[in-house]
Specification:
Helices cover 39% and strands 13% of the residues. With 92 residues, the chain is α+β, with helices and mostly antiparallel strands. Strand 3 and strand 4 form a beta hairpin.
């Protein structure tokens, strides 16, 4: 029957190389994907990462604990320093 290879549609299962052409037509993963893609609420690529259009108005400032405005980068640095401080106190 030949070597077993990963299914090109769903690599989580193996198929015989000689049965590749037939398997692609009857693969359960292909049928499930086709059914999912045909649903009216399905959109390809959703939840794959990135930020997309979240209605960002370009104002990336936020109020700090002390009442001062900070940028995202400044806030990230503050949080990183706070985490480092806690880490150093737990693991001296």
């Amino acid at each position: 029957r030949g070597a077993r290879i990963p299914c090109p549609i769903d690599p989580s299962h193996l198929i015989f190389e000689s049965a590749l052409a037939k398997h692609v037509l009857v693969c359960p993963a292909a049928k499930e994907r086709e059914e999912t893609c045909s649903r009216e609420y399905y959109q390809e690529g959703t939840n794959t990462g990135g930020h997309g259009d979240l209605g960002d108005d370009g104002n990336n400032n936020m109020m700090d604990v002390g009442g001062e405005e900070t940028t995202d980068l400044e806030r990230a640095k503050q949080l990183a320093m706070a985490v480092l401080k806690v880490f150093c106190s737990v693991f001296p």
